[in-house]
Write a structure and sequence with these properties.
- The chain has about 775 residues and is an alpha/beta fold.
- Strand 5 (about 145-150) and strand 6 (about 155) form a beta hairpin.
- Helix 2 (about 30-50) packs antiparallel against helix 12 (about 485-510), helix 5 (about 95-105) packs across helix 6 and helix 8 runs antiparallel to helix 10 (about 380-425).
Length: about 775
């Protein structure tokens, strides 16, 4: 029968079924259970010793001052403008360490209290049974960690200070500082606990809390910020957020009042100066009346004085305007005021000047706000300083222009006034002097009243200042911890517990370099598989085939015998060549039992031990003292003397190798080998050649010229996958005649099952003559993973 029509000659493309894929991992169920149990145990220990964290939050509304009010009108009169709140800036201000430092300092959060029991260390906030009191504020330690241990008498010991036992309120000295510890709740003290007091710098503590503060805009179109913080004690988180909102509003009000305070300070200084000048004028008027005994000037000259009074009014207005311009000019030119806003235009009705002052004040406010977040050397700050300087110079230029126009108008009015005075030269000198004094008094008094009005308006503005933000509700805390999340931790532990065995199994699969399953064979070669020989626990057993033997191994050899008949065909004296890639794959064991299975079928069979380099059959059957093939080649025996009958198996003969020759390959090429095969074909029905491994020496290729079929042995869990390529090359090159595979030492069940995970094929289903031995469960489990 041709090779192409031999059974199993086509390559099998076997794909893993879903059932096999499930069983592949299900067989590792104990590993999965152990891994999951270990992962869950680690998660339990982690949750047991990890301090839970609670989340606190508060909603803060940042108002946009877009509606005009009386305060806004006053701010406009002072050269200020309302602005829309920049949420990004406000978020950075809320997150600043400076603002958080005010919270830390107010709540004394730089000093923390802890208690340590048998399991974990917990923070005490608001429920600590004692309190640390620093008695040397100016010389206090900024860093310290004290351990406090109480006894039954409620006395305590601080090992870092001394071994002495202290009582509540007792003065304690450590290095250069003095402090005391006041017990506020003796019943709450647990003598089995160890307490700790920890102190850090306020600024460093503020940095830590600032990093832990979460700020997020509630929605894109809303000016509401959600402030969140995670703390071990929920009340602590709520107190921090509430105090942060309070300090933020307080800082906002202080920022708004800073400009008003500068205005009040300036106005007060001007009022003091004007009050002195006005007092001198009034004192001069009083002296003039007393000296000249002038109480009231009659109606004389009323008509004549009408025009001069009107002109005098205009002249007074120009005088006031010039003085106001001088005041603003002096303030702007003063080097100490360059970083402060211009207090106001002081009622000067000039749109250009008012606009410049307004822009100047707005830019000064923005610069002061940015200075809190941006260094002075930053290009942004330098640009803003340049803009402020340009506006200041523009204001000075505008004042200069106004001074020129006001001076011209004043001179013109003064000329008119002098002209009018010339017309009233006949009025007594006393009356003219009185008018001059009265005019000076009116100018000083009008300016004084104007500044008093501005002072009251500024005071009202300061008193009515409110924060531009407020909390919608008091801070709230979560009822359950947000960290660690028990559900997530256990879920992750479960996933890790499942993934680790999967990863281990996957790595083991990648590292498998030997033939395990039938699919491994069929994927790597097209050589037909003629049969499989199951694994047998008795490694020293030589014969597994007998006349009445119905064991699994015996039946498997019978199946192989049937399949080999298709390869040998109808030849009356067939020659079967048995070889393998390397030693140890079961070639000799197979040769002996293939011969035996043919012999029990009444076929006269001879086994040739032609592995002349390492003969094993002679040693197994104790035939070392018999003459063999090497003796025949040397002419020491005849071919008729070579066959030795095997005891216990009729029709089976062995021709041993004899002494190991120095040149086996050359010996096999001798013509006597041809004579030996000619004799054996005449006298035997089947000749079985046990040859050397073809992957190591060339002996098998020399003997292949005598063979009708070749049985190539591969061993499960022993033959390397890379050797299957060599077998495929032999098959494609037709180096060996009618080549077929026999898979030896096959495990039917367990991890290394030849038919895949969870699969197995029996050869008797109680058809075997071997008694079934029921192993204990632990041995059966161990056999699965062997």
């Amino acid at each position: 029968m041709s090779l192409s029509s031999a059974p199993g000659s086509l390559k099998e493309n076997v794909k893993s079924s879903p059932k096999e894929l499930v069983l592949k991992y299900l067989i590792f169920l104990p590993l999965f259970i152990l891994s999951v149990a270990l992962a869950v145990s680690v998660a339990f220990i982690y949750l047991r010793y990890t301090i839970p964290m609670y989340s606190s939050s508060v909603l803060l509304l940042i108002k946009n001052d877009t509606k005009a009010s009386s305060a806004d009108a006053l701010a406009d009169d002072l050269g200020l403008t309302s602005r829309k709140a920049n949420l990004s800036n406000e978020m950075e201000i809320l997150r600043s360490a400076t603002l958080m430092g005010r919270v830390i300092d107010s709540l004394d959060l730089n000093i923390q209290y802890f208690s340590s029991g048998q399991v974990k260390r917990s923070e005490l906030y608001g429920n600590c049974p004692f309190k640390y009191v620093n008695l040397t504020p100016g010389n206090a330690e900024e860093y310290f960690d004290y351990t406090v241990k109480f006894n039954n008498e409620r006395a305590f010991q601080i090992p870092e200070v001394s071994d002495q036992w202290f009582k509540s309120g007792q003065l304690i000295k450590h290095r250069t500082s003095y402090f005391q510890i006041d017990v506020v709740d003796p019943m709450a003290i647990n003598i089995n606990y160890t307490y700790y007091i920890q102190s850090r710098k306020v600024y460093e503590t503020a940095l830590d809390y600032s990093y832990g503060l979460g700020i997020k805009q509630l929605s894109r179109d809303a000016s509401i910020l959600r402030l969140t913080m995670q703390t071990e004690v929920p009340k602590k988180g709520r107190d921090i957020l509430d105090k942060l909102v309070y300090e933020y509003n307080k800082a906002t009000i202080e920022d708004k009042n800073r400009i008003v305070d500068n205005t009040l300070q300036f106005v007060d200084s001007r009022l003091v100066l004007l009050n002195g000048e006005l007092g001198k004028v009034e004192q001069g008027l009083q002296d003039f009346r007393q000296k000249n005994e002038v109480i009231d000037i009659g109606m004389q000259g009323t008509t004549k004085y009408g025009e001069i009074v009107a002109t005098e009014g205009k002249l007074n207005e120009e005088e006031v305007k010039v003085k106001m311009l001088n005041i603003v000019k002096d303030y702007v030119q003063n080097s100490s005021s360059k970083t402060l806003p211009v207090l106001s235009s002081l009622g000067i009705e000039d749109p250009t000047l008012n606009s410049l002052v307004q822009q100047y004040n707005q830019l000064q406010l923005e610069r002061e706000q940015n200075a809190k977040l941006i260094p002075e050397a930053n290009p942004i700050m330098q640009t803003m300083s340049s803009q402020v300087e340009r506006l200041r110079l523009s204001i000075l230029e505008n004042i200069k222009s106004l001074e020129a126009s006001s001076g011209a108008l004043r001179n013109k009015t003064l000329s008119q006034y002098n002209s009018l005075k010339g017309n009233v030269r006949r009025i007594p000198a006393e009356e003219r002097e009185l008018l001059e004094i009265t005019r000076q008094q009116g100018i000083k008094q009008e300016l004084f009243l104007f500044l008093l009005q501005k002072r009251e308006e500024s005071a009202i503005t300061r008193a009515s200042a409110v924060a531009s933000s407020y909390a919608l509700d008091p801070a709230i805390s979560s009822y359950i911890p947000v960290s660690p999340n028990k559900t997530s931790i256990y879920r992750i532990a479960l996933i890790i517990g499942l993934l680790i065995p999967v990863l281990v199994i996957y790595v083991l699969e990648l590292l498998k370099d030997k033939i395990i399953t039938r699919q491994d064979v069929t994927k790597l070669t097209n050589v037909p598989i003629l049969g499989e020989i199951a694994h047998h626990p008795d490694k020293n057993r030589q014969w597994v085939v007998g006349v009445h033997d119905r064991s699994i191994l015996s039946e498997q050899f019978r199946i192989i015998r049937t399949n080999l008949q298709f390869f040998i065909g109808n030849k009356p004296n067939g020659v079967l060549l048995i070889t393998s890639s390397i030693a140890g794959e079961g070639k000799t064991f197979t040769s002996m039992n293939i011969g035996a299975v043919w012999a029990v079928a009444n076929k006269k069979t001879v086994i040739l031990e032609l592995d002349l380099r390492k003969p094993k059959i002679s040693a197994a059957l104790q035939l070392e003292n018999y003459k063999g093939i090497s003796n025949y080649m040397l002419g020491q025996v005849t071919v008729e003397q070579l066959p030795i009958p095997v005891k216990g198996i009729d029709n089976l003969y062995i021709i041993p190798a004899g002494p190991i020759p120095p040149n086996p390959s050359e010996l096999l090429m001798d013509s006597k080998i041809d004579d030996m095969f000619a004799y054996l074909k005449k006298n035997f029905d089947l000749i079985v050649i046990d040859s050397a491994p073809i992957g190591l020496v060339s002996d098998t290729k020399i003997l292949s010229r005598f063979a009708d079929a070749t049985l190539y042995i591969v061993r499960q869990r022993y033959t390397l996958k890379k050797q299957m390529g060599f077998i495929e090359d032999l098959y494609k090159g037709q180096v060996l005649p009618s080549m077929g595979l026999l898979v030896n030492d096959v495990k039917m069940t367990g991890l290394s099952s030849y038919y895949g995970y969870g699969y197995g094929y029996g050869y008797g289903y109680n058809y075997s003559s071997e008694p079934e031995v029921k192993l204990p469960w632990w041995k059966r489990l161990f056999n699965i993973y062997r």
